[in-house]
Amino acid sequence: MLDILWRGAAIGIGATIVMDLWAILLSQAPGQSRPNWAPVGRWFWHLRRGRVFKPDFATVAAYENELALGWIGHYAVGILYGIIFVIVVGRGWLAAPTLLPAWIFGIITIAAGWFLLQPGLGIGWAASKTPRPNMARFLGLVAHTFFGLGLYGTALLLRQG
To answer: At what angle do helices 99-108 and 66-95 cross, to 10 degrees?
Structure first.
């Protein structure tokens, strides 16, 4: 079981790095910026008060270390997803990784962003309160596709025989 946990954690880290590399590349395009993890850190910080959804998030008090907490939370979620994925697909997949399960799982993970994080940040279900919700959704799906590619690619690097 320990082997599954460390491989899942490593695969989750690798997948999150791939997703972040995509974000850096995308930020070079006109009108795009790098993700700002500070609001996510603020959201994580205020979760301890038991309130997940904050339609008035803009008025939530800032937290001194929210950017660092946002990055930590981002990678912690990636690690958790990696562990869950490896538990679901099992040792057979680790020995012979295939793209389809990793891509499907990567796409499924967008649900937490759409139905938990984004409403928690006050931007609505699936970014419905943003200026361009369909573009936000599309870019989220692309980012999570890169997460799935990262799951697969990292598993290939760590393949066990």
So the answer is: 150
d(CA 9, CA 5): 6
Q: What DSSP string describes 88-122?
A: HHHHHHHHS--HHHHHHHHHHTHHHIIIIIHHHTT
What is the rounded distance in angstroms from the CA atom of residue 138 to the CA atom of residue 153?
22
Binned average pLDDT, 10 residues per bin, the chain of 161 residues = 95 98 97 94 94 88 96 98 98 97 98 97 96 97 98 93 52
Per DSSP, the residues of 2-61 read HHHHHHHHHHHHHHHHHHHHHHHHHTTSTT------HHHHHHHHHHTTT----TTGGGSP
CB 111 within 8 A of CB 119: no
CB atoms inside a 10 Å sphere around CB 130: 14
- Full-model pTM: 0.95
CB atoms within 10 A of CB 91: 11
